[in-house]
Amino acid sequence: MRSNTGKLVAWVAAAALVVAFVVYMTKQVVVPPSEPGAAAPLTVPGVIFYVLAAIAVAGAVGVAVSRNILYSALGLLMALLGAGGLYVFLSADFVAITQLLVYIGGVLVLVLFAVMLTSRITDVKVSNTSFGPVGGALLFVAAAPVLLAVALLTPWAVRIPDALAPTTASIGNAFLTRWLLPFEVASMVLLATLVGAVVIARKELKAD
Length: 208
Fold this sequence. Notes:
Layout: H1 2-29, H2 44-65, H3 69-89, H4 93-117, H5 132-153, H6 168-176, H7 180-207
Helix pairs in contact: 1-2, 2-3, 3-4
């Protein structure tokens, strides 16, 4: 019980710190249309943005901290949902729907089914060793100052927020006109990968 409470406190603290940093950076780089040079007021879309950012960060922390693979999968669900919502704020509706259908509806559901249908998955010993919390803490201490320096010292371009507009139609037209050849080449590569996976799987079944 105490360990679960500690994990919950760590999730909330990490999410609060990252959201506070996002709020600070937003006030530095976003200028409202009515008052150039002034700080952006907190509106309903702003509150939704920060809530989605907190959900994404809390889910990512849960994936990294949790020792239970099922809880990690649920944390990944939170992180992907938060990221999908943030894509909507970037006027990337196509990417948001793709995130929802492919990563959440496909990959994550597959992971959950694999976890639930695998017998005694927690008893399996992983061959590769992990550095654990100490290695993660050292990596964080080494990387965090660099990331903070880049975020705080970079002269970010100040811009006025754009109105949300759908992009799915323009992306579809681009795939079927200007980028038709690269799109078909990527499709052939994926098809070749799928056929190769089937051939390798059949060889392993025959060997058994």
